[in-house]
Write a structure and sequence with these properties.
Blueprint: H1 6-19, E1 25-29, E2 41-45, E3 49-54, H2 60-73, H3 77-81, E4 86-91, E5 99-103, E6 111-114, E7 117-120, H4 136-145, E8 150-154, H5 160-167, E9 172-176, H6 180-192, E10 200-203, H7 211-216, E11 220-225, E12 230-231, E13 235-236, H8 237-245, H9 248-251, E14 252-262, H10 269-279, E15 285-288, E16 305-309
Parallel strand pairs: 3-4, 8-9, 8-11, 9-10, 11-14
Antiparallel strand pairs: 1-2, 2-3, 4-5, 6-7, 12-13, 14-16, 15-16
């Protein structure tokens, strides 16, 4: 990355801070290659805490100028008006993704809001803090069409889609993820929003070994598939996604919808569309959801793909 481009970063951060709502948001998305020389830099706003991520090791000049600029940022009116309290630099390229607190004291477990819903985050211990910000409009989409529906949330992680679905009036949500610790955080998220726990089910199992249990709890009016691009020993996207798609006709109610997602820069929308034609031809592609405008990307196919099938 190029230190001479950092003034653009700070100019953009200041502009975004001036207008950001009192919610968590991405302020700067260098990963979309819209900002030459800053491709491995992102910045997230967690309602008072600023998390700056470096995805590639940088030289001392870049790091020093980045830190100096962030410290100066705390003297600006936008920082004071938004009640900024902490700035953290997370070195995502390094083993364990170590975090460096630059300003203030880090609250590692803040409760934040998105579109009126509360989420418990966990900062600094893992690469991801508990909610994927580029999926904001996907959660809104689920909330808007969940009323009265049975929802299946595959690769549920911390149950962000589940929270949106129950808030939108879903009758039942089944969350499936082999990471029981993530599902436990999902339970916390539902409690934070005072949801009826009887509407929510959690299956801490390997999806590919649990189709019987999943089917027993269905059929489903809405199925969400949001897998990792790769999970060692459990999921390889291009190989395993099709195994899920071929199960959909048995799980989906007549007229039901599927939100199928891919977040690998090398796997394009056509992979999902063609695979669905091959594995579940009764379902047809309807449209792709927009990504949040702050996640600007020079190549739309390199960014999050969230496709609706029916």
């Amino acid at each position: 990355m190029v230190a001479s481009q950092l003034p653009l970063f700070f100019e953009h951060i200041e502009s975004e801070l001036d207008q950001v709502p009192n919610e968590l948001r991405r302020l700067f998305h260098g990963r979309g290659h819209h900002w030459p020389g800053l491709e491995q830099l992102t910045c997230d706003w967690l309602q008072g805490q600023m998390i700056v991520n470096l995805f590639k090791e940088v030289d001392e000049t870049f790091l020093s100028e980045l830190k100096d600029g962030l410290i100066k940022l705390t003297n600006l009116s936008c920082w004071l008006e938004k009640q900024g309290s902490c700035i953290v630099i997370q070195h995502r390229y390094a083993e364990g993704a170590p975090s460096e607190v630059l300003i203030g004291e880090l609250n590692t477990r803040p409760v934040v809001e998105e579109n009126g819903l509360k989420y418990q985050l966990d900062i600094g211990r893992n690469q991801n803090f508990g909610l994927f910000l580029d999926m904001r409009l996907g959660r809104d989409w689920v909330k808007e069409r969940a009323e009265g529906k049975n929802v299946l949330n595959l690769f549920a992680y911390t149950c962000g889609f589940s929270v949106a679905a129950v808030e939108g009036g879903a009758d039942k949500v089944v969350n499936v993820d082999m990471a029981k610790s993530s599902l436990s955080k999902g339970r916390e998220n539902h409690k934070l929003n005072e949801h009826d726990s009887r509407k929510v089910n959690y299956l801490g199992h390997d999806i590919f070994k649990s189709w019987g249990k999943i089917k027993k709890m269905g059929q489903y009016d809405l199925i969400i598939i949001d897998p990792p691009s790769f999970q060692k020993g459990s999921f390889a996207l291009t190989k395993d996604y099709k195994k899920i798609l071929r199960r959909l006709p048995d799980l989906l109610t007549e007229g039901g919808e599927v939100l199928a997602c891919v977040n690998s820069p090398v796997v394009h929308s056509e992979f999902l569309i063609d695979s669905m034609k091959e594995e579940a031809p009764s379902l047809s592609f309807q449209y792709r959801l927009d990504n949040p405008p702050e996640f600007i990307d020079t190549d739309p196919e390199a960014s999050l793909k969230a496709l609706v099938f029916k």
